[in-house]
Write a structure and sequence with these properties.
By secondary structure, the chain is an alpha/beta fold. The protein contains 7 helices and 21 strands. Helix 1 packs parallel to helix 7 and helix 3 packs across helix 4.
């Protein structure tokens, strides 16, 4: 690796939040903690044929979007990606990422025109996983598994930060805090619905409410339609939108989550909602064909068989919730016969590069 440095101008951001620029030879260079509009002196740290990575040696001219990070751990910790830029610039970067995927991968003209957010960029996380190196407790250093001792995280709810002081070195430690605080059987409340949580639940409860409200709005059920929610987890979206259905069915291939979902339906007095333990791609479709199908797959997107299953169900409307714009865009190409009626982004993870999408598809 050469010791020479390069002068570059940052023009945008990668999907992981790195600044993106080009070297004089045309190669793309990715630079952590860079802001769009920065003019930087950088040194290469990793070289490939078409791209490379670099670290900042000197900021020659700072972007107007650049701010001083509030967190003393930001430059080393891998938890946040965007504490060095304004929140307005972060939201713009995320919306650009969604719309670039729609155009470049899905090949569609539809664009997300809004990004829903709570406006709260700190104190929102209801969950954290701490690591230990045997002598200290903290988070992983960016790009490694070495531990940075942490005594306070700006992303976490106050009661979780209070718990950090009690942690002792050992294995990985998961902290969660719901409506009943930490150290209790984990529950959350969304719009009057109480959810017992087993496994996955959104880490930002207030933003999760915005997402659920958008899904319910998109579903547009009026009391007598049939709703199917694939990848339903503990039934959050199934119950939230299923309140408006004549019948709703949640499908999840995780017995513990299904049991929690059934409990949630009972405790919220929603007898019109049922749950089954089945693979999204292979379940038996002996139920009534749906008016609306919700899919909320993991980051890798839908399995090909699940895409075929949705097409087999032939609903009037599909609502696709995604935590990765690239896999969303890929799956949209497979959902032939459907077009995007509306799409929005939801900032579920402020100060990180992650972004949630909610897309409404209707038969073309």
């Amino acid at each position: 690796m050469s010791d020479s440095t390069h002068t570059v101008t940052v023009t945008g951001y990668s999907s992981g939040g790195d600044g993106v620029a080009r070297l004089d030879d045309g190669r793309v260079v990715f630079i952590r903690n860079a802001a769009r509009g920065d003019v930087l002196e950088v040194k290469l740290t990793e070289e490939r044929a078409r791209s490379t990575r670099a670290r900042i040696v000197k900021i020659l001219a700072a972007s107007r979007h650049r701010i001083g990070p509030e967190c003393p751990f930001f430059m080393e910790c891998g938890g946040c990606d965007f504490r060095h830029i304004s929140y307005e610039e972060e939201l713009d970067a995320k919306l650009r990422r969604v719309n670039d995927a729609l155009k470049r991968i899905a090949g569609v003209s539809a664009r997300a025109g809004e990004i829903l957010c709570t406006g709260r960029t700190s104190g929102y996380r209801n969950k954290a996983v701490f690591h230990s190196d045997g002598s200290s407790v903290g988070f992983y250093r960016s790009g490694s598994h070495s531990v940075i001792p942490i005594d306070h995280c700006l992303l976490l709810k106050d009661d979780l930060n209070d718990k950090i002081k009690t942690l002792r070195p050992g294995g990985d430690i998961t902290l969660r805090s719901g409506r009943n605080g930490p150290d209790m059987p984990y529950e959350e409340e969304l719009d009057g619905l109480i959810f017992k949580i087993s496994g996955f639940f959104q880490v930002n409860t207030d933003a999760a409410l915005l997402l659920c409200q958008k899904v319910r709005e998109y579903a547009g059920l009026t009391g007598n339609g049939v709703l199917i929610d694939m990848y339903c987890g503990v039934g959050t979206l199934t119950l939230f939108a299923g309140r408006d259905a004549g019948f709703a069915l949640g499908i999840e291939h995780d017995r513990e989550a299904v049991e929690a979902a059934r409990f949630n339906a009972r405790q919220n007095n929603l007898p019109n909602v049922e749950f089954i333990d089945a693979d999204a791609a292979e379940w038996n479709t002996h139920f009534e064909l749906p008016d609306c199908v919700i899919v909320d797959p993991p980051r890798k997107g839908m399995a090909p068989g699940a895409v075929r299953k949705v097409l087999e169900l032939s609903p009037r409307k599909i609502i696709y919730v995604s935590c990765d714009p690239a896999t969303l865009a890929r799956d949209l190409r497979g959902l032939s016969g459907y077009g995007i009626s509306d799409i929005c982004a939801v900032d579920m993870f402020p100060r990180t590069a992650n972004i949630e999408c909610c897309c409404m598809l209707e038969k073309a």
